[in-house]
Amino acid sequence: MKKIILSGFVAGIILFVLSYGGLFLAIRFFPELFMDYNNPLFNSDGSRDILFYLHAFIFSFALSWFWARFKGLFHGSFITRGLEFGLVYALVALLPVMWITFSSLDITLFIVFSWFMYGFIQAVIAGLVFAKINA
Amino acid sequence: MPHYHLPTMLKLLLFFLLLFLSGLNQSVKKPYLAKWVITKGCSLKVVGSTNVNQFSCVIANYYQPDTLTFYKDAAAEPTRITGMLKLEVQNFDCQNPVMTTNLRSTLKAKAYPYLIIRFISLSRYPANHAQTGALKGVVSIQLAGITKRYEVDYRFIPNGANALTLVGTRQVNFSDFNIIPPRKIGGMIQTNNELDVQFSLKAKILE
Q: Distance between CA atoms of B109 and B93, rounded to whole angstroms?
């Protein structure tokens, strides 16, 4: 349990910095890619900002538990294990969620694809952290 | 019953007759300086920006028959005006469905369907409307349930015989109307508070 919390916390901090830092830089240097977010579908009054920024930790703690439960199924070097872990997450969780999101919300394919890649990269980073500190 | 002398009665009659005639003279004098009838082709444009793009949204071809009446109380005072533009917020078009929906939602179109511009005064009446010119004026803008007064820069452009186009421009803030500029994904995408408003009024002059 201690290892789940510790690795979840470490992965959360790393994901927080990389995810929001990456997002900030992407918006700064490629603003045209983010024009579609000016959409009433996205919360616009700032009331849920805290939830938005907690996402990195919700994600890391959930995946930390998942890793602890199924880490025996991932073999090889820590890079291979991290990559496979990210792929499993993308296939099992992300793909169906993105599918229903695109089919039901008025958002572009590009947005859905970018969310898929964002989640996949986050899961790979989390997997690498878990493979290192909770082998 | 009091007894009046005939000359006194005549003087009184003459006095009341003069009083009546002077009042009659007041009532036949034109009470206003000029009237303009708003014609087809009026529009309102708002230009704003976010940290990722700019947007320009228009209510084009506004037409709701109305008259602007100009009054001049004293030479030194600005020309008072009565009349207004009543525009439907739902008619904003940003040439991009997502931006259009976003602007309408930001301006609370469902709760407050109208944007009303009331004309209050002009620094002077554009007497020589055969030539292009500039002047200042005051309007009140009612948006999202809040009314604010603004000084507006006007340009008037001749538009045929006894017709002109009056273009008013002014920068307003979302916050003036208690509207929080939209912010998305944790505030990483932010709409700037400033909004440039430009309304174009086409009118026929009845003097």
A: 13
Report CA A47 to chain centroid distance, whole Å. Answer: 22
Nearest residue in A to B97, CA atom: A39
The answer to whether A72 contacts chain B (CB < 8 Å) is no
- Rounded alpha-carbon distances, angstroms, from residue B37 to B12, B47, B58, B63, B156: 46, 27, 22, 11, 15
What is the SS3 assignment for B112?
A: coil
The tens digit of pLDDT for each residue in B47-85 reads 999 999 999 999 998 887 788 898 877 766 788 999 998
How does pLDDT run across A36-58, given as a tens digit for each residue?
888 888 888 888 999 999 999 99
Provide the 10 A C-beta neighbour count for residue B127: 10
Query: Does A30 touch chain B if contact means CB atoms closer than 8 Å?
Result: no
* Interface confidence: ipTM more than 0.90: no
Predicted confidence (pLDDT) per residue in B82-138, tens digit? 999 899 999 999 998 888 988 999 999 999 999 999 999 998 887 776 788 899 999
Q: With H, G, I as helix, E, B as strand and everything else as coil, classify residue B51.
A: coil
Q: Measure the N-to-C terminal CA separation of chain B; round to a whole number of Å.
A: 53
User: What three-state secondary structure class fits B87?
Assistant: strand
DSSP state of B52: S
**Helix (H), strand (E) at residue A38:** none
Q: Which residue has the tokens 């003069």?
A: B18
Residues in a beta bridge with B70? B34, B81
Cβ(B170)–Cβ(B202) under 8 Å? no
| Cross-chain CB nearest to B102 (options A32, A39, A49) | A39
Strand partners, B50: B191
Looking at the complex, does the CB of residue A25 fall below 8 Å from at least one CB of chain B?
A: no
